[in-house]
Amino acid sequence: MCWSATADLVAGAGIALAYALVAHPVTAEIRGHTMGYAVRLDRPELVIAGYLFATVGALLLSGDRGLLLIGALMGGGAVICWALWELEFVSTWCAFAAVGSVALLAWVAFRPGADRPAAVRSGTGG
Fold it and tell me: What is the dihedral of CA 84, 45, 65, 96, to 10 degrees?
């Protein structure tokens, strides 16, 4: 996929999600131990593909081994969330994405040659 088409897919997903959130009601309900969210989307499979490409695909396209590993972890997490909790995908994906955000923070803080804050360099933690 060329860069222009990729950017269009990602931008289209963002615009579609923003429009849906503004134009349609969002519902949420407790479903067991998760939350189920719903908003009306035209072509939801395309919007979700664009969203996942923006969030996971960028990591998988990186040349950095750490980012590739995080991308593989996040891609696997998306598949697991979808397979196990299809109706609650948004809720479970958000929880998994939070874990991925911590992994990304660790990559930023501890990669070789990183300019670390003084508390991290000294090991004092604050």
Answer: -40
Per-residue pLDDT of the chain (126 residues; tens, 9 = 90+): 555 666 777 788 888 888 998 999 988 888 887 777 788 888 888 888 888 888 888 888 888 899 999 999 999 988 988 888 776 787 788 888 898 889 988 888 887 776 665 545 555 555
CA distance 74 to 14: 19
> Which single residue is written with the structure tokens 């719903």?
38
3-state secondary structure of 42: coil
Q: Report how far apart the first and last C-alpha atoms of the chain are (Å, whole number).
A: 45
Amino acid at 95: A
0.85 surpassed by pTM: no
d(CA 102, CA 24): 32
Tokens of 122: 């000294």
